[in-house]
Amino acid sequence: MRLDKFLSKLGIGSRKEVALLIKRGRVTINGIKVTDPGVKVNLEKDVVQIDGKEVRGKVEGFYYKFYKPRGCVTSKSDKDLTVMDFLPKDLPGLNRIFPVGRLDKDAEGLLIFTDDGALAHRMMHPKWKLSKTYQVWLDKEITELDLKKIEEGVELSDGKTLPCTASFLDETKRWIKIEVREGRYHLIKRMFGSLGYKVIGLKRIAIGPVKLEGLKPSEIVPLSEEEVKLLKKAVGL
């Protein structure tokens, strides 16, 4: 992260104010004076001081997308294999980030990792209705009538589902693309199960504006600035 952005996020001052502070030679990184506001800071290793006093604090600034493989749980710690076991040990922010939301153990696809608590809260809050898109494989052909029922909403034990969009992905009518705007326990499986279908494969391919496309199973990459901007915009930040 840029030094001026780091100090600004800590509340030292505006980007303009901290840039002036840096240019005046009042800031050091690991004991070395720096005058370039754009110099990079390693948030986990570097010691930043202003006028000889170390500055500390939580800076929210890590945003990643990860292709969760099947067979692991979406948790930071568990007796079973977790998504954290797939992350590189030298990943910046590893000790700070957490997965936003969940994917079933037998499901695969897109997960967002961040240390931005405000963003994570809004992504999971039902008020914002952040879209999530899945590819679904069914045990048998689904009728157009039943797919229409899925789109209009089906009754579950915890209430009727919100309207969604669903379409066939091939001629077998067993491979479906569905976009929902709510999050409930085993939602997709229960939606199709309510009409007599079993989900035998589930892959999340998008969360709002962020796409899985281009990632390989167990791969993690930083979100682009544009992806972060669009994701925050989708939840009113």
Automatic annotation (TrEMBL):
Q: Keywords, A to Z? A: Isomerase, RNA-binding
A biological process (GO) of this protein is: enzyme-directed rRNA pseudouridine synthesis
Q: Which Pfam families match?
A: PseudoU_synth_2, S4
Instruction: Give this protein's Gene Ontology molecular function annotations.
Output: RNA binding; rRNA pseudouridine synthase activity
| PROSITE patterns documented for this protein | PSI_RSU, S4
InterPro entries, per database record:
PsdUridine_s_RsuA/RluB/E/F_cat, PsdUridine_synth_cat_dom_sf, PsdUridine_synth_RsuA/RluA, PsdUridine_synth_RsuA/RluB/E/F, PsdUridine_synth_RsuA/RluB_CS, RsuA_PseudoU_synthase, S4_RNA-bd, S4_RNA-bd_sf
Assigned EC number: 5.4.99.-
- State the SUPFAM superfamilies in the record: Alpha-L RNA-binding motif (SSF55174), Pseudouridine synthase (SSF55120)
What region holds the RNA-binding S4 domain? 1-60
Q: PANTHER family under this entry? A: PSEUDOURIDINE SYNTHASE, PSEUDOURIDINE SYNTHASE FAMILY PROTEIN-RELATED
In which family does this protein belong, per the annotation? Belongs to the pseudouridine synthase RsuA family.
Protein name, entry field: Pseudouridine synthase
